[in-house]
Amino acid sequence: MAAIIGRKLGMTQIFTEDGARVAVTVIEAGPCPVTQVKTTETDGYEAVQLGFGATRPKLLNKPELGHLRKADAAPVKHLHEFKTADLREGLAQGDVVTVEDFKSGDVVSVTGTSKGKGYAGTIKRHNFKRGPKSHGSHNIRQPGSIGAAAWPSRVMKGLRMSGHMGDASVTQRGLQVVDKDASRNILLVKGAVPGGVNGIVIVRPQ
Q1: I need a labelling partner for 38 at 20 to 30 A (CA). Which of 11, 22, 61, 132 fits?
Q2: pTM above 0.70?
């Protein structure tokens, strides 16, 4: 099993041989060309860079095109580095990682960008409880006390308050690969993964 870059296409359901219904996320995974292999001698650390998402050359700048040209790779929109431990051994610049590296039953972690919810209050963002609506209450959806008075005379850092919700990197662990379609570069993962439709996701071995 190897790590791979993909795109979330949505969710559906399939039926197993015993008739059980399983909810799965459909991921268009790869093909991902190896655009760079980093070593301790040349870069100070070991990593493998993969590309994903074919694009037009005019949408990339000259440094990006030159970087891909060194690896004999077609223009791609997304680049991501992986630890060498997350990839199969023997990968060299110019190789391609596909869904063939996965099999049913593999346990993976999927990283994506969660859906942005905009500015949200504490009830929606942190599941706070509301106050009473009657008897002169002035604390219906307010957060309540956020600190002491005389000491420390300031609001402590890290308090759960209202603010920007979502649009953050989220990793869902312990997901199982149910099936794959190598001809269409499709990976079926049991359960939901972070992000919306067409969002870029990173699939790593657990």
Answers
A1: 61
A2: yes
